[in-house]
Amino acid sequence: MPDQKKKKSPKRTRRTDHKMTVADYIRKHSPIKAGLRISDEDKPLAKYNKVMDRMYLGNYQAAKDRDLFKDKKITAVLNCTRDIPNHFAHNKDIEYMRIPVEDSLKEKDFELMYQYMPCIVEFIHKHANIEKNNILVHCWAGRQRSAISIAAYLVAKHGLNPHDACKLILEKRPEAFHFGHSLNFDQALTKFYKTHAKKAK
């Protein structure tokens, strides 16, 4: 009986998580799915969380917490809102930058966030690399605008892709991106990664 040539099986291509949209990837890694129990998703778990060395992500309460500024030696604040006051702007040792973007889910605010991202990255980078100083990045809830701002910094200066940057933030602050349920500025981050951060590598 003649030898029969074995048919080569077609190569299988494995679908990786990173082929998901960033929003879907973060939903998959929601801390609630992982077992985090909370009674009310609209109530803050914490005023702030440390995301990495010299960097804190917080909400409107953190922005006016005098003890936090003193204990953590906050010397720079990225205020990602139109209307929350820069509470300690009178202090010459604290530098503020305001990003006047609304969390409205409107196209104009997605685009505005994208346009601000290069400035956001440079401001965070400047202050996150000053020894013994710390930066607070905040919005109203510390979940969307401030979180995506830090994600932009991570993809631009730490070489992470948007998926891994957002996952790192979610691990450090479980309520970020509304506990992983929604990533309101994902298209701004993805666009920034493709047009700025990825090319810079």
TrEMBL record:
PROSITE patterns: TYR_PHOSPHATASE_1 (PS00383), TYR_PHOSPHATASE_2 (PS50056), TYR_PHOSPHATASE_DUAL (PS50054)
Keyword Hydrolase: yes
GO BP, one annotated term: negative regulation of MAPK cascade
Residue ranges occupied by any Tyrosine-protein phosphatase domain in the UniProt entry: 47-198
GO MF, any single term: MAP kinase tyrosine phosphatase activity
InterPro entries: Dual-sp_phosphatase_cat-dom, Prot-tyrosine_phosphatase-like, Tyr_Pase_AS, Tyr_Pase_dom, TYR_PHOSPHATASE_DUAL_dom
Domain called Tyrosine specific protein phosphatases: residue spans: 114-174
Cellular compartments per GO CC: cytoplasm
Keywords tagged on the record: Hydrolase, Protein phosphatase
SUPFAM superfamilies reported for this sequence: (Phosphotyrosine protein) phosphatases II (SSF52799)
This protein's record includes keyword Hydrolase: yes
Name assigned to this protein: Tyrosine specific protein phosphatases domain-containing protein
Organism (species): viral metagenome
Organism phylogeny: unclassified sequences, metagenomes, organismal metagenomes
